[in-house]
Design the sequence.
């Protein structure tokens, strides 16, 4: 099968999957089986493109031209390959998890939920494989629209309000800021193509370029730079599989992926270093990174704490892009992968706790680790990876970001990263300590949460873990954070082909 066929197939399968899910909704076992099958097929299809990209190729296809020089086109380069593999690979485990969660929590409208989920993955892959800013923008907007019903899934007033904030901020920033920047880029550079080394340096003055950078960085609302971050905690009203989709698989990763694409392929690192606004955005990222961590410390709801953690962690990648050197870009690309595995593990655990124990507040989780040791040990691994502790994958992305700060002679940013790491410890480790070391509340001491969906195979050992469809994915992603510490070199080699050609 040719690379062109593979690219088109990777985009088509989720759309066909969404239609199949909608048509088979009356038989939930058939529907869910077909959903998982389509997820696996998409991942295998995306994986099949990897050898060509590793060899230095940039397989692509032009569908049609909107006007001369402005095509709807796809091409797979290293950053897109990484994002495509993360999105499609984690879609498989999120699909399995979603089955366990949606059934265990007795959620309604599951067919609509899973159909929209598939469309969101289609949009995420469109963003990953976009060959120009116009194509990326189209799929970026489809991603926002397709996830709106997921955020509003519960249908109550709180969900509707959260969904309105979610969609309003994402569409407002992209149409109000990013689209004008694209129009100016098109007018002055004559193209929106992603080109190694950038397209702006020889076509736009540094003054205009500095303004364009501000418009792009704040216009990419999915990167959640303050003050355009409120959509992310507002979306926490959605079911936990949606939170996993937002924070690890698709939405926020589409945002920071776009930040890296714009930095590397529209501005170019040399031109980016020459713009005064790159320092401004760097300081905004540093402020977001620290202040969101401080807010996370004050949240007692576990999902809310994790949401602000994500706001903070995304700014690591924005900061890396603004440092504008190869090591920092490498660190940012690695962080897309490492944070995805760490954060999806944390959200999977939060959902498992809700399904099995009906608890969402951290003080309610005292002693719960004795009944759910697998879940809370997985939470610990995910937390340590997000913190950046070895031997877990998050260490390598933070290490390379720090090396990038050293190379850029921004010692203050090393201090920012170190302070943020300490804050990560302060808000991620206490839930585990409370779960394992504190006594359960009196009302829970003699009450064992149990329902027909519990994993009865574990109950015989005195455990009250979530259903296996919830438990297996979180164990898989938690182990993934460990494996990535030892298997990060192929990811680094692929990212380095941005600058050097074929992977060694």
Sequence:
């Amino acid at each position: 099968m040719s690379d062109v066929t593979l690219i088109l197939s990777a985009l088509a399968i989720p759309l066909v999957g969404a239609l199949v899910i909608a048509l088979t909704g009356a038989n939930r076992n058939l529907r869910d089986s077909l959903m998982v099958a389509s997820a696996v097929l998409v991942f295998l299809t995306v994986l099949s493109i990897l050898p060509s990209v590793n060899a230095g190729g940039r397989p692509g296809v032009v569908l049609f031209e909107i006007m001369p020089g402005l095509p709807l086109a796809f091409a797979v380069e290293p950053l897109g390959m990484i994002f495509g593999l993360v999105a499609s690979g984690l879609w498989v485990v999120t699909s399995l998890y979603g089955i366990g969660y949606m059934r265990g929590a007795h959620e309604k409208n599951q067919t609509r939920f899973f159909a929209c989920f598939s469309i969101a993955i289609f949009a995420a892959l469109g963003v990953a494989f976009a060959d120009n800013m116009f194509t990326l923008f189209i799929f970026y907007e489809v991603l926002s629209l397709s996830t709106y019903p997921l955020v509003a899934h519960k249908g109550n007033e709180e969900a509707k309000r959260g969904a309105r904030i979610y969609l309003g901020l994402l569409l407002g920033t992209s149409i109000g800021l990013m689209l004008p920047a694209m129009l100016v880029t098109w007018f002055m550079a004559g193209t929106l193509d992603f080109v190694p080394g950038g397209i702006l340096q020889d076509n736009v003055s540094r003054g205009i370029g500095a303004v364009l950078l501000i418009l792009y960085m704040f216009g990419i609302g999915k990167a959640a730079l303050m003050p355009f971050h409120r959509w992310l905690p507002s979306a926490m009203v959605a079911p936990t599989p949606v939170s996993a989709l937002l924070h690890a698989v698709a939405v926020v990763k589409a945002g920071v992926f776009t930040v890296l694409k714009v930095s590397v392929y529209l501005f170019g690192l040399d031109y980016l270093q020459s713009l005064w606004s790159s320092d401004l955005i760097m300081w905004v990222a540093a402020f977001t990174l620290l202040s969101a961590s401080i807010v996370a410390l004050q949240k007692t709801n576990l999902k809310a704490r994790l949401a602000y953690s994500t706001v903070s962690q995304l700014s690591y990648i924005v900061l890396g892009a603004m440092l504008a050197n190869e090591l920092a870009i490498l660190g940012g690309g690695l962080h897309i992968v490492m944070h995805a595995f760490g954060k999806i593990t944390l959200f999977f655990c939060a959902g498992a706790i809700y399904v099995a124990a009906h608890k969402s507040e951290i003080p309610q989780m005292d002693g719960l680790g004795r009944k759910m040791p697998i879940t809370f040990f997985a939470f610990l691994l995910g937390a340590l990876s997000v913190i950046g502790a070895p031997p877990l994958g998050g260490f390598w992305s933070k290490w390379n970001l720090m090396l990038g700060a050293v190379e850029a002679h921004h010692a203050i940013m090393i201090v920012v990263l170190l302070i943020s790491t300490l804050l990560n410890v302060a808000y991620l480790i206490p839930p585990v300590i409370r779960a394992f070391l504190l006594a359960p509340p009196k009302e829970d001491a003699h009450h064992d949460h149990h329902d027909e969906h519990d994993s009865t195979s574990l109950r015989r050992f005195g455990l009250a873990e979530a259903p296996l469809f919830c438990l297996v994915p979180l164990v898989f992603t938690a182990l993934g954070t460990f494996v990535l510490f030892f298997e990060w070199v192929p990811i680094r080699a692929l990212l380095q082909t941005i600058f050097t050609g074929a992977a060694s």
